[in-house]
Specification:
The protein has about 500 residues and is α/β, with parallel strands linked by helices. It is built from twelve helices and 23 strands. The longest helix is centred in the first third of the chain and has 25 residues, at about 1-25. The chain is elongated. The N and C termini lie far apart (about 75 Å).
Length: about 500
Amino acid sequence: LALATAQASEAIYQRMRERRVKTLNKAGGISGIDPFDQTHGVYIWDWFTPDWNCPDRERIGPVGDGGKWTCGMDALRHSPANGDRCLMYSFGVRDDSRFELEVINRAGCEVHAFDPTVGNLPPDAAAEPRIHYHKQAIGPKSGHSDVFLVVESILDTMDRLGHKWIDILKIDVEASEWSVFEALVNAGRLPFSQILIELHYADPAAAFAFFDGLERNEFRIFARETNHQPCVAGRLPVAVEFSLIRSPLAQWPPPMSLMAAGEKVSKPISGAVWLLTNARRLPQLTRTMQGLASGFFLDYNLRGRYPVVIYAPKADVRAIKDRCHAIAAEAGFEIKYVDVEVAEGDWPSWEDKEGCTEGAGGPSYWAAEFHARTSLASEYEWLLHMGDDAHLAKPIAYDVFAMMAEVGKSYGVLAGARPSDFFYPSNECFRQLSDAAGRQAAEHGAKWTRGFAIGTDPAAAKKPPSTGSSSKTSQKDPQALPLLLNDQFEVSRASLWRK
C-alpha cells in the first residue's frame, strides 16, 4: 500500500511539473513572469505547488510563525539513517524553540540549533539535554562574512559533528538560503530526508533554480504555507514556508556520494586554555572549569582538542587536581599544571571594593602572568586566557581558535564570559586599573600597551597606548606586548608574546 501511494503521488507530481513547464514556456520563460501579478492574483510562489501526498502530514510547533509542516513524525522515532534515532538541524531559532522542543518530545530527536544572532537558546530549550546550541551562521562555504565571524557550510558542520545524514533540516535564515542551496545542488550532495524552509523572495530565476535543483535530487513538495505577517502590514507575501521530502521511491540507503563525509579533515590548530590561580580560589575555579567543560569542550565537540594549563603554587597543585580532575575527565580535556611563585601579598583581592586600584595584584603576580604567556607562546600557536573567576554565562558555541585563525585576527576579548560579582564593572574603574598596571610594568622594565579590541591586526601591538597610559611605547618598538588588565576571556595569537 505504501509503495502504491508513493507511485500515485509521483505520477501526480510529474503531471503538475509538466504543466508548470508548459505554462512557463507559454509565458515566454522566466523573464516573462511578473512575480507579484496583482492584476491576476498570481504570485511567484503559486508556481510551486505541494503535489506530493504525505498521508501523515502534520503541523508541528506554535500557531502562526514558527510552526512547520512535517511528514511521518511518529516514524522518525526509529530513523534508519542514524542508528534508529532521529537527527534534526535547525538553522535560525532566535528566541522561540517551541518547534524544536515538540519535535524532541514527539520523535525523541537529537537537535542541533544554529543562530549567530542570539546569545543562547530560550531557558526551556537550554534546559533540554537533547538540544545543542551553536553560535554560528550558515553559508555556501565555511569562513566568515562581513556580518558574521563564524560561518560554516552545512556539509562542513555535519563533518565536524560526525553526522552523515539529517532526518529533518529546518532552515529560516532571512534570504541566505539561496546561496546555501545553490552550493549544495552544485555539489550534488543533499543528505537530508526532509527540508522545512522559509523562502524569502529574491527573484524568479532564484526560485525556479532552487526548486528545479531539489526536484532533480528527488525532493518533492508536500506542504506550502504563506507567512502572512507582511500581508497584515500591507506588504506583498515575500516569505513562504515550503516542506519537501526526499521521495520514498529514491534509492535507499542513499549512495555514499550523496552523504556527508561525517569526518572533517583539516589541519589541526595548536592552542591552549590557561589560567593563574591558587587553592584559596577553588570555588571560583571550579565554576570556571565547569563552564569551560559544558560551554566550550562539550557544546562544540572539542573533546581532546585543546589542553587547559593551570599555573599555581606548587603547594596548591594537589588540592586543585582533586577538585578539577573529574570535570576534565567528563568533558574529555587534559589539564597540565605549571608551578609559579607569587608573593603572598601580591595575589589580587578582587573582593576589595574600596577603590579601583586596590587589590589589583602585585608585581610578582603580573610577572607570573607575563611568564605564562611567553612560555606558552613557545609551545602553542593560540592562547585563551580565562580569569579563574570568569564563569561562562553563555556557551561559547564555537571554536575560538579556529575562528580567529579563519578571520585573520590576532587578539581579542570575547563576549560570553562574566566576571565575578566582585569585579569592578565601570569603565572608569577599568581605566584606573589599566593605568596601575602600566605603572607596575614601567617600574619593572616591561613594555606595555593598553589592551586592544577584537578585529585589530598584529601591527596594532606596535602602536602607542591610549591617552592616560603611564608608559610610552614606540610605534616601531618590536617588543611591545598587549595586556588587558584582569582579562576574563582573552584570545591571542602566541606570536604576540614571543620575544
